[in-house]
Amino acid sequence: IAGITQAPTSQILAAGRRMTLRCTQDMRHNAMYWYRQDLGLGLRLIHYSNTAGTTGKGEVPDGYSVSRANTDDFPLTLASAVPSQTSVYFCASRTGWSYEQYFGPGTRLTVT
Amino acid sequence: GENVEQHPSTLSVQEGDSAVIKCTYSDSASNYFPWYKQELGKGPQLIIDIRSNVGEKKDQRIAVTLNKTAKHFSLHITETQPEDSAVYFCAAGYGEKLTFGTGTRLTIIP
What we know:
The complex is a heterodimer of chains A (112) and B (110). Chain A is built from no helices and eleven strands. Chain A has 112 residues and is mostly beta strands. Chain A is globular, with a radius of gyration of 13 Å. Chain B is globular and about 40 Å long. The chains are: A mainly beta (112), B mainly beta (110).
């Protein structure tokens, strides 16, 4: 069982370019999340999805969009990247009967 | 919304001593309080959690205490070992959302 996989591991992106971060889980978890981690700010929720077909906004959603076409995949898209979106991005998932969130290994994104 | 404050931001302890990390939260509706450990280059991993109907929970060398009245909870690590060196995050929440603290970098000095 792989758990949660994220791709790419790292990426350098020019400002203004579009980028999709991929997240896939094989645990059949209902809920999935995207966080960004910045030094001194901890983990901040960008978007979440309680179940396939539904999504919701977190604390810092501006500039990001998500979709949840099926249970396993939860891609995060930056439509037009800006330098302030330089961060480490973590995907997480949770079953419907537990509060515990399982995190992926992260994607380090640098926007220049 | 929920606001979680975590202290200290850095902590160094001698191997074998105890370490304590404290968090406060603002939303009295929060009922779930996990602690995550993050090693360099990896995603956070849950090490212990507590629900609001419990005051204390232990798992070997790790314990968490919760004071609902004061809205604070703490992580206690006893008999610290070099492998305990990492960044630790507290969080508070209910339902599907968690709000994280800003993290504590714990260094165990051999």
